[in-house]
Input
Amino acid sequence: MREKIGLLALCGLIALSIATTAEPVCPTQDLPAITSSAQQDKEREAAERDWNERLRQARERVKDLERRADQAELEIVRLRNIQFSPAPQDAGTSARINRQVAELSALMRRLRAEAAVAQHEVNALLEEGEIKQFKLLSLSPTTETGEPNLNYYRQRFLELDTDLRDAEARAQVMRLRANDLRRRITINSVTGDNFFIGRLRDQLQETQQGLELARARIATLKQQLEDLHQRAHAAGVPPGILR
Output
């Protein structure tokens, strides 16, 4: 009997020892997973901001290159108008204009090529954003307190105004290019080179299509500016902001 009691006591001590040495269940054992999720969200937000900035810079580069190419082409047309004007010119003036036109033409072609490459970069960034499901970041028209966000209206106005100026310059380039092509078609019509004239007419058709696109772009931007002015007026934005 004593041996049985002693055995039971020994078993109790062993059980007590196991219970006291067992690791307690930690109520915060899920904290690493929560922390990891929060860190991933933070990293994603940083990546999204970085993507937005890279996209903004790439788009600005395209606009800058196209703007400079248009300016070069406008100068080419201006010089050609001088060269082919009825006013008499000496050989030196004509040679100088030819040199300037050649230099500007090379510059224009280089800028157009760089703009095409830059546009590919923009397209690649847009594809990256779509794959990663990034969102385009933009200012809100209102602040957290519900007041009109003046920074939003000012920034949006400047963006639309710059785009409108670029579109108007592009339309001017297309008009002058079309006039130049018509002049060259008329001059070459006496030679009877139908193949060359056909190429000029194809270029003229392409230029006219570009002019129509530029005009449509201008109309859209003007409407967007008008809508912005109306929204700003309704929100109580001071008129001086949209200037």
The longest helix spans residues 31-83. The chain is about 80% helix and 0% strand. The chain has a mean pLDDT of 86. The two ends are 105 Å apart (CA to CA).
